[in-house]
Amino acid sequence: MTVFLLAGGGTAGHVNPLLATADAIRAREPDATVLVLGTVEGLESRLVPARGYELLTIDRLPFPRRLRSTALTFPARFLRAVSQVRTIIATRHVDVVVGFGGYAAAPAYLAASQAKVPLVIHEANALPGIANRWGARLTRYVGVTFAGTALKNATRVGMPLRSEIATLDRVAMRSEALRFFGLDANRPVLLVTGGSTGAARINSTIRDSANSIVGAGWQIVHTVGETRDFVDPMIAGYHPLAYCDRMDLAFSAADLVIARSGAATVCEIAGLGIAAVFVPYPVGNGEQEVNARELVDAGGALVCPDAAFNREWIDESLLPLLTDEARRNTMSIRALGIGNRDGAAKLTDLVFQALTDFRA
After folding, report:
1. What is the pLDDT of residues 148-194, one digit of tens each?
2. 278 with 309: CB under 8 angstroms?
3. Alpha-carbon distance 69 to 52, whole Å?
4. pTM flag (> 0.85)
5. Which of 38, 111, 128, 171 is 20 to 30 A from 235, alpha carbon to alpha carbon?
6. Residue 30 structural domain
7. Do 136 and 154 form a contact (C-beta atoms < 8 A)?
8. Whether residue 255 sits in one domain with residue 150
9. Mind giving me the DSSP string for 53-75?
10. CATH number at residue 11
């Protein structure tokens, strides 16, 4: 029986591909033991146990980016975390460590190297994070989502997608999706999502433009996130939701999507072949803009900077797209042409290859 330790977490961008990979590993080796290493503060503290996997935790340990008192104590805290992971590897007889970035990943990378167990890393974003840039130097088994990701020994495997998206038949599910959201089967659907916490610019612009969009013959499903600032304008055909836990149905209903360009979102939309407009999150190292670049260059999506996503852009760019079905169909075909939904299987192949090479 093989024991897998999957390390990562903090945000959905780390947790969802981790869980998709865990499911793929268990499908391939049903009697395997799959352990997850994370923190009590991260999203994994809720999602991992709910999925039926054992969660082991270490202290949240962000890399210091400025010279502060926490930076002075970081080396000792980091080595303590590495020691904790070394103990887990030894006592749980871990055969392979698979890391996805995030706070729990870096200590796991060094612990795996010191314990001489195979290490596999997956990088979700086009621009890799600090933990994975460092960890990739410790292993030759590095899977990436996007072509051109600057990591040593990178192999493109794509994004491990949650099973409900990877196996989704949008055509078969469309009628159920329309009923679920209370939508008109004779009008196209614009899906707008800024993530679980919402996106202020997207929310305000879509709310203020809802009359124009509905007036163009469309209906809108808009996940606004957990925000107190949003006021529903009560427009017929406009359906704001705080949160949607059935994104498979939301994607099945959608004829066009407006969204942030997190790596998973880009890959889900491309894999499903849905025309899209991306409004990259303007904070960070610019990875969301780079995430969308391949799909935009292929003609499968448009990109609008956050600062430019306003009523004027809606009038000049979005409304003409809403009335041009042929253009949207072409975008969908081009998105599907570069998308894939087998990232979890390909990353699992890489994990088992690492195990095979190590045991040879």
Report:
1. 899 989 999 999 999 999 999 999 999 999 999 999 999 999 999 98
2. no
3. 39
4. yes
5. 171
6. 3-162+342-359
7. yes
8. no
9. -EEEE----PPP-S-SHHHHHHH
10. 3.40.50.2000
Question: Under 8 Å CB-to-CB from 224, ≥6 apart: which residues?
Answer: 194, 198, 203, 230, 240, 241, 242
Question: Beta partners for 120?
Answer: 98, 141
Same domain membership, residue 211 and residue 313: yes
Of 130, 144, 143, 134, nearest to 112 by C-alpha is 134
Question: Which residue(s) pair with 55 in the sheet?
Answer: 36
How far is 262 from 118, CA to CA, in rounded Å?
29
- Torsion region of 153: left, alpha or beta (phi above 0 gives left; psi -120 to 50 gives alpha): left
Q: How many CB atoms sit inside 10 A of residue 83's CB?
A: 14
Which tens digits make up the pLDDT trace of 320-343?
Answer: 999 999 999 999 999 999 999 999
Helices (H), the chain: 12-28, 44-50, 69-91, 105-115, 130-135, 163-166, 170-181, 200-215, 247-253, 263-272, 287-297, 311-313, 319-322, 325-338, 343-359
